[in-house]
Amino acid sequence: MTYCVGLTLDDGLVYISDTRTNAGVDDISVFGKMHTIVKPGERTMTMLSSGNLATTQMVVNILENRIKAESDFESRLADASTMFEAADIVGSTLRKVIGSFADKGSDGEKKFHGTMILGGQIAGDEPRLFLIYPEGNFIEASKDTPYFQIGETKYGKPILIRAYSRSMCFEDAVTLLLVSFDSTIKSNLSVGLPLDVQVYSRDSFRQGLQFRIDKGNDYYEMISSGWGDALRRAFDRLPKFSFDASVAAESEHFESRSA
């Protein structure tokens, strides 16, 4: 399992992914799930992947090799005129790769599934973000759905729903996402550090700042402990529950209904 998030802002795009590919008491593997393709001044695209590692790595390798090959391909990310077209290329490639495992048994395609997030900008187009499903179809981020999560999504979603704002700056967005990841890491062993982070500035058409947050990172540790302290303080400020008052109110309600 994994956890990846792509998020849209007025200023651009933010991506973050964990790097854990296998988890157990004595079996933890690390592998990057963020891949960026850049043609300076013209386009930049970043892919995040979740699911079977062999499947997603094959998709990425196929897409990258098409760009490097001298022969022409009909479906190359380097030739896509819009991000919508690029998403269609990634989706088609993902579907074909998963379909190639159909002969691995009745549940072959299920075992070798994969889901991807694709974001970026091509000259003449706005920065755009897509969620690509194993079947090859995809949806685009909008004002109603301004970010996408893949992998182990349920633990980190509440903080995004409550605190996200499209107008927030890159720094605040990274802080928000780190809180989301901290909640997920504390709840599920299959997600863990290091985390890869990347930001893309609107109309820059180059790879933005990218860095890795490893175990022991001072800022991450402050976020983790600070968020826990803030939750405890918020809990202490909530109206206090009283068994006596609740029981009395329930008794009055029952008596009124009986009458």
Q: What would the keywords be for this entry?
A:
globular; 12 strands; five-stranded antiparallel β-sheet; alpha+beta; 37% helix
Written overview of the protein:
The protein is an alpha+beta fold and about 260 residues long. It contains seven helices and twelve strands. The chain has helices spanning about 55-70, 85-100, 110, 155-165, 170-185, 220-235, 245-259; strands spanning about 5-10, 10-20, 20, 30, 35-40, 45-50, 115-120, 130, 140, 145-150, 195-200, 210-215. Helix 4 (about 155-165) runs antiparallel to helix 5. The termini are far apart.
Give the topology.
Layout: E1 3-9, E2 12-18, E3 20-22, E4 29-30, E5 34-39, E6 43-51, H1 53-68, H2 83-99, H3 108-111, E7 114-122, E8 128-132, E9 138-140, E10 147-151, H4 157-163, H5 170-187, E11 195-201, E12 210-213, H6 218-236, H7 243-258
Give a quick precis of the structure.
The chain is of the alpha+beta class.
Strand order of the largest sheet: 10-1-2-11-12
Per DSSP, the total helix count is 7
Q: End-to-end span in angstroms?
A: 56 Å
- Molecular shape: globular
Helix content: 25-40%
